[in-house]
Amino acid sequence: MAGLTLRGIHKAFGDTAVLNDIDLDIADGEFLTLVGPSGCGKSTLLRIIAGLESQDRGSVSIGGTSVDHLRPHERRIAMVFQNYALYPHMSVFDNIALPLTMTRLNLFERLPLMRQLSPRRRRVMDGIAREVRAVAEQLRIESFFHRRPGQLSGGQRQRVALGRAMVRHPQAFLMDEPLSNLDAKLRVHMRGELTELHARLGATMIYVTHDQIEAMTMSDRLAVMDHGNILQLGTPAEVYERPATTAVAQFIGSPA
Ligand code: ADP
Ligand code: MG
């Protein structure tokens, strides 16, 4: 199925190794959370899985098939960033539709002039609009399709970023501290929404957070990282009750 496998992922920037031969097996539909101190390599690992960064050695597979040769949009993996990375000059609709228009319209059809002139473009866009609406309904964001990201609240922007990830129906979602820019109340609310979304979509999730409560309550398993290594991998209860090292205990806040 659509489980994710990392084998010997190694990455250095200059002389500094930031990922040391990471091996990790994530089951189809699993919610795996990466935690660890700032700079330990969490974002770099997500970026490599998404194809936004290339590893020096090692391999990423989905469903047993290597995706190393595939470009980001060719991998059935969607990433949601901490800062949402929405295009400020584009409407909510266009932001969500972008992954589909980029793959289904050719360069020529993407020219504004072609909006009126190309019947094929119109047919493709009708299909895309249906798919965008279906995702937007799930996230309850249809009412501000025509706004720009700058006219939205943090929570609304977060939903648009989720919509842009969902519209591709990816096999895996990668989320890099997706709630860290929200206020405390909204964060609690969105935790519940993400958990529900994960259950509903049944997609594999790799989630990065600094928030202990998110890590302990949302995850099937936790991977605790430090200096480019996975120190411990286990259920939240296992990691909390039986930390493998004092570094894990300190980071997780286990009783001494
Ligand atoms: P985390 O997300 O766990 O905070 P990162 O993966 O962002 O950590 O970074 C891991 C290390 O790699 C850090 O020391 C960071 O400074 C370094 N790093 C990340 N991206 C680059 C880059 N493009 N060029 C050089 N160093 C980088
Ligand atoms: Mg990071």
What secondary-structure arrangement, pairings included, does this model have?
Layout: E1 4-13, E2 16-26, E3 31-35, H1 42-50, E4 57-62, E5 65-66, E6 77-80, H2 92-104, H3 114-117, H4 119-139, H5 154-166, E7 172-176, H6 184-201, E8 204-208, H7 212-218, E9 221-226, E10 229-234, H8 236-241, H9 246-252
Parallel strand pairs: 3-8, 3-9, 6-7, 7-8
Antiparallel strand pairs: 1-2, 1-4, 4-5, 9-10
The structure holds adenosine-5'-diphosphate and magnesium ion (MG).
Function: Involved in beta-(1-->2)glucan export. Transmembrane domains (TMD) form a pore in the inner membrane and the ATP-binding domain (NBD) is responsible for energy generation.
GO molecular function: ABC-type transporter activity; ATP binding; ATP hydrolysis activity
Membrane topology: Peripheral membrane protein
Entry summary:
The protein has about 260 residues and is α/β, with parallel strands linked by helices. It contains nine helices and ten strands.
Describe the structure.
- It is a peripheral membrane protein.
- Belongs to the ABC transporter superfamily.
- Involved in beta-(1-->2)glucan export. Transmembrane domains (TMD) form a pore in the inner membrane and the ATP-binding domain (NBD) is responsible for energy generation.
- The longest helix has 21 residues, at 119-139.
- With 256 residues, this protein is α/β, with parallel strands linked by helices.
- It has a 6-stranded mixed beta sheet with strand order 6-7-8-3-9-10, with helices on both faces. A 4-stranded antiparallel beta sheet has the order 2-1-4-5, with helices on one face.
- It has helices at residues 42-50, 92-104, 114-117, 119-139, 154-166, 184-201, 212-218, 236-241, 246-252, and strands at 4-13, 16-26, 31-35, 57-62, 65-66, 77-80, 172-176, 204-208, 221-226, 229-234.
- It is built from 9 helices and 10 strands.
- The protein is globular.
- The structure holds adenosine-5'-diphosphate (ADP) and magnesium ion.
- Magnesium ion binds next to helix 1.
